[in-house]
Amino acid sequence: MGFKDHFSGHAADYTRYRPTYSPELFAWLAQQAPTHTLVWDCATGNGQAALGLAAHFDAVIATDASDNQIATAHVHPRVRYAVAPAENSGIAAGSVDLITVGQALHWFDFPAFYAEAARVLKPGGVLAAWSYGLMQVSPAVDAAVWRLYEPITGPYWPPERRYVEEQYRSLPFPLDEIAAPAFAMEAEWRLAQLNGYLGTWSAVQRYRKERGVDPLALIADELAAAWGSEQSSRRVRWPLFMRVGRCEAAGRA
């Protein structure tokens, strides 16, 4: 299964509009790791998780199969970026304390990736993967966003999206699982920022390409009425759905 690239064409917007994770998430993940020498942030995108991890680990290797995403990633002295697929990282065997995969595991070749994870992890190393679905703002805003998500762009979502909709519960995860606390992303946004974020959805991008029109225009009036003044800010919240596990038989060459 080759790399399924749904985001390189709008990597700059992805960097600008995607929400960021809470510091508490990375602090908890660091507590699960056997040591704090090296973490691999796989499918790093613009590096948002890599930056949070850098506060807790000596070094971060952040990889993505998209060179466009890596080109727009945020620079940090403890983060080394590289273009590499999830299934073939090029990382030394038995060298990694923690692997993180934010909103990307559902795109991977599962058997090949899990074999690579077992190869690079130290004994007792941890793999943590998470996803997030639709944001929560208010009943009226959420209804407008749902109309964009399902009735309008529903046929344009890749089939792997079902794993996100099922909150990663149905996704294969062959590790000794660790129960994780509830985490969420939060942001204070204006309407323009929400529209920018919605424009990064892969289904919106595909709809635009195939139909030559912008599906955001179909909910623009409803969304604006639900939001209120364009200059007003609202709290936007995305609950995270996590799978975390320890790989005891790790570090195989």
Structure description:
The chain has 253 residues and is an alpha/beta fold. The protein has a single domain, classed as Rossmann fold, CATH 3.40.50. It has 10 helices and 8 strands. Strands 1, 2, 3, 4, 5, 6, 7 and 8 form an 8-stranded mixed β-sheet that branches. Helix 1 runs antiparallel to helix 8 and helix 6 runs antiparallel to helix 10. The protein is globular and about 55 Å long. About 3% of the residues have low confidence.
Write the layout of secondary structure elements.
Blueprint: H1 11-17, H2 23-32, E1 38-42, H3 48-53, E2 59-64, H4 67-71, E3 79-83, E4 96-102, H5 110-120, E5 121-132, H6 139-152, H7 161-165, E6 176-177, E7 184-189, H8 191-198, H9 202-211, H10 220-227, E8 234-247
Parallel strand pairs: 1-2, 1-4, 2-3, 4-5
Antiparallel strand pairs: 5-8, 6-8, 7-8
Helix pairs in contact: 1-8, 6-10
